[in-house]
Design goal:
The complex is a heterodimer of chains A (about 400) and B (about 260). With about 400 residues, chain A is α+β, with helices and mostly antiparallel strands. Chain A contains ten helices and ten strands. The radius of gyration of chain A is 21 Å and the shape is globular. Chain B is of the alpha/beta class. Chain B has a single domain, classed as Rossmann fold. In chain B, strand 8 and strand 9 form a beta hairpin. The chains are: A alpha+beta (about 400), B alpha/beta (about 260).
Chain lengths: ~400, ~260
Amino acid sequence: MTAAPALGRLTDDQRAIRDAVRTLARERVAPRAAEIDRSATFPEDLRALLAEQGILGLPFPERFGGLGADLLTVCLAIEALSAACATTGLILAVQELGALPLLLAGTEEQLERFVPGLAAGRDLIAFALTEADAGSDAAAVRTRAIRDGESYVVSGTKRFISHGSVAHLVIVFAVTDPEADRRRRISAFVVETDSPGFSVSRLEHKLGIRGSPTAELAFDEVRVPVANRIGAEGDGFDLAMRTLDRSRPGIAAQAIGIAQGALDAAAAYAGQRRQFGRAIGEFQLVQGLLADMDARTEAARQLLYTACDEIEHGAPDAGRWSALCKLVAGDAAMAVTTDAVQVFGGYGYLDDFPVERMMRDAKITQLYEGTQQIQRLVIARALLARNA
Amino acid sequence: MRIVVLVKPVPDPGEERLGADGRLDRTVSAVINGNDEYVLEAALQLLDANGGDVTLLSMAPAGITDPIRKALAMGATRAVLVSDPALVGACAWSTAQVLAAALQTLEYDLVLVGADTSDGGGGVVGAAVATLLHHPYLSHARKIEPFEGGVRVERLSASGHDVLEAALPAVVGGTQLLGEPRYPTLRGIMGARSKEIAIRTLAEIGLADRAVGGAHATTTLLDARPPASRGSTRVVRGADPAAAAAAIVDFLVERRAI
């Protein structure tokens, strides 16, 4: 991949990839979106399509069969897919999230073992940090990994794990040293889901992204080889935080995609729907709504692209950039989709039209990969540290 | 198997505009002619099954490479573009001569061509190229099966289908009956950047002193205009069928038709 050029301009490759994914999203994903939401079924056919088209290979190094794309390019693809279907965009976003701990800290041996299947889009991977009593307070996880010879024995439960029921691999954050300092208690492991003792104990019924399986995972003395531990013992919490610094832009991209999809639908509707003898798009109150929706979406997009550039080039305040783009994009998506329903009026409330689904889908972008409140804490701490 | 696919960049169907000179404005977004995509897909399937290579051959202004890059991204091996200022305004007969001359500089077993184009709609270039090169021409193929030294083609007929066979090299024409074209994969898109697009002038294909091009067109454009607007016809556009249906209902209700 050629290096990113001056800020704000996409390379030819990035533009070509974005356009190709947009075409695929429009022609193959969009027609499935309503049904995926209605039936709350994981779109395995679209997972296969994304794999076949190389889209799931974007985040992975070329030497393992991936496309070696930079963060911005992965985000462009997530955005384009999410404009058609937030669940489908999430397939790529979660694949990136789950693989990041390996890509950031895995040994060459671990990469060789796990990445080719991920890059081919054949194996899905999930990120299992959250527990029932450890959401925002991620360091409070209680899942335990006890060393026993050449293995660890993992026991505990993880909650709200995206793709937990369809993944072949799960990155599990578990306590290896209960006596250690909060940030050194946890280690990260690759758990293969066909291991004895692993089970999916619950699937959630959600407000939005209903086609994405959100699972509770039970680990009942699951034996995990030492060779599957990522990094050293105690590195887990830090690895999780570094992962989120790189994965939050993916959620921002999803949010911006959802917002754009809603904006496009609303603008098209405003051009067609007639009241009082004219298209409603001619009325200033409707124009005002649409203009504000466009401004918010575009502002969020430009911030995301800048954040990707900064993070890709090793900015020391990557955490701040990551939190900024996710905060702004999530709030933009919620506002824009709510206004999109407004533009549609009563029809927007019906599932005959896509905007109510988009509004329900948008909400999750304010909740996962760190709530908006957590993003604010990250940003404020960075500011205060800089000005200390 | 060495295959050449004749491709023509055309204005995106539905986006066509006339320029000031009454001719088609070719600066608007260009795409590969629809029928050419179908025969290209057939060529790529033969490439996947039998190996060899697929060369794209086109006559077009030198600046229009995006559609060619997309065809390369789908999996074609290389492209040859014949481009010359003298060719602006060329008629179908010139086009056929140019493509035939370019083919004589290439090595191939099979030439595939779309049945007609969405902009010109003449449908004669494939047959004219075959005639100039003294190759058999098998038109409107819905299935293409090469065999040792020859090619077999199925063509729909009024009563069923015909099966035709001819020795190679041959020219085969096709339409959407050949099957949906593949999406370029992302890897294909990135790989297309390094695939060769060779530009050839008329002199380089041996036509320097031949009467081809706009100045020698055998057809004359007398008039070109968009269809007359029939007053207050409203076209309901937009990708969302539910929104379009609602708009149509509103329209009928407004006129108390329902």
